[in-house]
Amino acid sequence: SAEETRSVFQKHRPTHVIHLAAMVGGLYKNMRQNLDFWRDNVHINDNVLYMSQEFGVVKVVSCLSTCVFPDKTTYPIDETMMHNGAPHESNYGYAYAKRMIDVHNRACFQQYGLRYTAVIPTNIFGPHDNFNIEDCHVMPGLVHKTYLAKSETCLTLWKNLKPQSHSECPICW
Of the four, 36, 37, 91, 102, which is 20 to 30 A from 26 by CA? Predict the structure, then answer.
């Protein structure tokens, strides 16, 4: 919330901010809740960047996502291609909200000379990630499925939003 964000900024008076806050989820959660992902993340981003501006934060580094890139693009990709087309329809709410950080940063520079920036990390995971197969990201999902495959007969991977048949699964044993 804007009030909670303001309270944190008033208490800590940061000069530098690393903005990692976001509503996140895996493919299925994004597909079910595109509006929620867009709305919540736009509010989170605006709260952090606006309070940073208001409290005179010198530097903000925000975290985007690889999903900000257009669904139809050429490879290799780089940050200049972010706005060259629509993101994949499965997570357009989250992707557009993340793109808006770039727009917000540019506007802060143009209007106030603020040099806020963003990074776009690749898919990574860590020990406290969401490993729930129903709504996790790809890498933690693969880790979890691989772990489960130790006690099951096959590891099922998805291709083009459809499970591969067991006969196509290169990891089945």
Answer: 102
